[in-house]
Q: What sequence folds into this?
């Protein structure tokens, strides 16, 4: 099996959503060892949203079911779908997949752009109706910059976990096994995460 780390590295040069803090790290030499102080948002870099992030109730990030974040997933290449990804661009490609990662034109980009790719509300409603456990995207948000939160609320209310700001530039459209682990931050609305894909057994 081959492993792909689809997590964006966290650094001071991180792409930051407007209004969020820029990550900062202060490393200290304590003589026998080094130790660092970290300052960042719960939504810095590649991260997972908990229901409480937009619903103000429900699961916090330490309560999100592991079954949402670990298991078979499908990467869909939607680079030709434009910046407002509609259900018509995805219909027929999902099959029985319970976890989906959307590869857009944003993978690998290092600067924020208000017109980043995202899904529209109709697509969110169809994902919710399909009982998708997790949906991830490589852009800064699953929802447009000028939004009212409806896409987030629709997905999170259905029990779907959301992963944002992935780096899918090195992976092809196909099925993988996904492991996406947030920090176990008690009572919080989200967390930076390490997201890894591996090819299915017997595949290369």
A:
């Amino acid at each position: 099996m081959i492993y792909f780390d689809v997590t964006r590295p966290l650094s001071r040069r991180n792409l930051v959503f407007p209004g969020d803090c820029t990550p900062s790290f202060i490393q200290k030499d304590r003589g026998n060892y080094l130790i660092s102080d970290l300052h960042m948002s719960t939504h810095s870099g590649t991260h997972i949203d908990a229901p409480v992030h937009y619903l103000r109730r429900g699961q916090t990030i330490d309560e999100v079911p592991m079954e949402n974040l670990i298991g078979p997933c499908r990467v869909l290449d939607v680079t030709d779908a434009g910046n407002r990804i509609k259900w018509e661009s995805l219909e027929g490609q999902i099959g029985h997949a319970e976890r989906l990662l959307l590869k857009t034109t944003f993978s690998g980009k290092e600067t924020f752009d208000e017109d980043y790719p995202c899904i529209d509300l109709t697509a969110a409603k169809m994902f919710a109706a399909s009982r998708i456990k997790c949906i991830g995207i490589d852009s800064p948000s699953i929802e447009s910059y000028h939004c009212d939160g409806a896409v987030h609320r629709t997905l999170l209310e259905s029990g779907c976990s959301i992963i944002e700001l992935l780096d899918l530039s090195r992976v092809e459209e196909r099925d993988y096994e996904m492991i996406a682990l947030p920090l176990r931050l008690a009572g919080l609305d989200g967390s930076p995460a390490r997201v890894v894909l591996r090819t299915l057994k017997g595949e290369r």
Helices lie at 52-55, 66-69, 121-129, 150-157. The mean pLDDT is 94.
